[in-house]
Amino acid sequence: MTTRKPDTIMAHGGRDPNAHHGFVNVPVHRGSTILFPSVAAWRAAKQPGSDAYMYTRIGNPNSRAFEQTVAALEGGAGAIATCSGLAALSTALSALTSAGDHILVADTVYGPGRAYCEKVLMRMGVEVEFIAPDVGTAIASQVKPNTTLVYLEAPGSHSFEMIDLPAVTNAAKAAAADPGRLRVMVDNTWGTPLFFRTFEHGIDVSVHAGTKYMVGHSDVMLGVIVANAATEPEIRRFAHLQGVCASPDDLFLGLRGLRTMGVRLREQSQRGLAIAEWLAARPEVARVRHPALPSDPGHAIWKRDFTGAASLFAIELDGRYDLAATDRFIDSLQYFGLGASWGGFESLVYPGDDLPRAVAPPQPAGRMLRFHIGLEDLDDLKDDLNQALGQMHALSQGADAAE
Questions:
Q1: What is the three-class DSSP state of 108?
Q2: Is the pLDDT of residue 30 over 50?
Q3: Would residue 187 show up in a list of annotated catalytic residues for this protein?
Q4: Whole-number Cα distances in Å, 355 to 1, 87, 136, 159, 392
Q5: Annotated active-site residue in 187, 250, 296, 305
């Protein structure tokens, strides 16, 4: 059999029970030193193309199993595991840029990734220019002779604007002085390898916060970079030189999460859309930002390029609700935890205030909240939201009466 569907890859990828005394899962290989039976074996292990393990920092059975599974799932040539999603972003960004380079960055990318571009890459002599999420083929006019990287995310973190990834990718490469030198990198944490097939759209690098849906249980920090054949060796060499790696224990849990990611994602995607539609009908909500909703400005792009939607989206509250009312709403929720991250089995809410913007539309007048929908019963979640919205409205009405 030469092809495997995603669910089969997630269930069987990286597993070889015969190599581990019949155990279904790859055991955790804790350790640093790897011993060799002879000098000849040690020298053979160092040869190009050898699959022998030399040192845990540059690979062990846990990292190989996780990396091979993710690469197969997304269709990349290879993958590099890191200790966090930000580590994956910063490693890929640094590996693909040098002093004097110019890079184009979507104005709506993940905040810490944006900060790395501004506070680290710029300090190292890289010119960083932000592009609007609706740039499309017009990106061609912003490509310079020294442009080496385009860093995108769709939808945008917190604000959920869709970028036309194929149009931007094709236009940027067509405008490049050396198309082979310009790489396009996408943060595909929201889309996941299941809902957006990165490499089928001409993209060179896909980065994930494995902490989110891949792990799925809110108990591990993990990242992964997936790249095409022309780019993966360059990033891997840099990662090894930087000492970038993930722990065997975290990789074991990440691989465990991958086994059920398809089932969880399908269920959470449906629940997320159901809650988004329910909130869209509420008078307290001015707008729901969810690309899978037909009313969303990015819906056509999402429908064309994506095969599913994550359970993460945002809402804009009606402008009459101030900070105190919004805080009351969040504090009144029982099943929605207030915390960063997402992708786990539990529902979350997170304020979307003070988003950095250079060229994207400014933050809306109404307060914005980001929701992640977990695996709780839908009726329980709706009841929880209903009572919290009621308390928010009551506080707002009381404040109006006092005036």
A1: coil
A2: yes
A3: yes
A4: 48, 22, 22, 8, 23
A5: 187
pLDDT at 7: 82
- Look at residue 314 and give its three-state secondary structure: strand
Catalytic residue among 57, 119, 237, 304: 57
Alpha carbon distance 148, 184 (integer Å): 9
pLDDT tens digits along 113-157: 999 999 999 999 999 999 999 999 999 999 999 999 999 999 998
What confidence category does residue 1 fall into, taking pLDDT thresholds of 50, 70 and 90? very low
DSSP three-state, residue 245: coil
Neighbours of 40 (CB within 10 A): 9
Spatial contact of 216 and 264, defined as CB atoms under 8 Å apart: yes
Tell me which of 173, 212, 264, 271 is the catalytic residue. 212
- Please provide the DSSP assignment of 141-206 as one string: GG--TTEEEEEEESSPTTT-----HHHHHHHHHHH-SSTTT-EEEEE-TTTHHHH--GGGGT-SEE
Catalytic residue among 110, 213, 321, 350: 110
The model scores a pTM over 0.70: yes
Specify whether 382 is catalytic: no
Residue 350 a catalytic site member: no
- Catalytic site residue 321? no
Whether 183 shows a pLDDT value over 80: the answer reads yes
Helices (H), 196-318: 232-242, 248-280, 299-305
The first and second tokens of residue 311, run together, are 């359970």
Instruction: Determine what percent of the chain is predicted with pLDDT higher than 90.
Output: 81
